[in-house]
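Sample entry (251 residues):
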Amino acid sequence: MLSARDDFTPRTLIEAAFDPYLSAFARLLPGLVAAWDRLPAGDGQKARLAGPVALLRGWNHRWAAESTATSVAVFWGEDIWALTSGAAAEAGTSVWDYIDDRASDAQRLTALDTAIRRLTRDFGDWRVPWGDINRYQRNDGAVVQRFSDAEPSIPVPFTSSRWGSLASFGAKAYPGTKRYYGTSGNSFVAVVEFGPRPRAWAVTAGGASGHPDSPHFDDQAARYATGRLRPVYFSPDDLKGHIERRYHPGD
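Predicted structure, serialized as tokens:
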């Protein structure tokens, strides 16, 4: 991504940081589609998986909150990973390489069957937008967050870095939840332009305060989820008009 150009500006670097292309699925999904194509006509699994395969066949391999293909791909990726990770370790190869080069048609299709069943069981339909599953939630200031599908949360369009997303959001289901909530990934993102007068833009997952009653407890969450970085106030001139209170040691 970074070697493709050498004329970055702050704006285009931010765009690159939130590029939605999922390189892992661009590499791994053709094997799944080919496995389905090889099934004989009239096979029950072929009929059962026709819709999901058609969706993945036409997908552009880019995450989006409204994308149902992202949901199917991620759930399939999780299931094929679970099926093959042990064998990949024994073979001394990466799981991505194993899925691409050595996974059997049966493994690929079984993983898709499992993914479709999980989506249907947990969300009522396998055609569920990724943003309805992948969520950001901050309920309190506890070090270990307790997540709840009944509490407010916001959609996050990007995925785990496992699938090639530079904007990384590591999320999973927790006890009592169907939705996925993020607890790892990029917690702070910054772009800095060095020069006579440095300029910078940044965003923090959630907010700068750990106190739930503070307006800054969660005020950056929407920016984080959409890649809308805020200006960083660096010099005294930058701070003018943006200060809530001042503190001087000893006063």
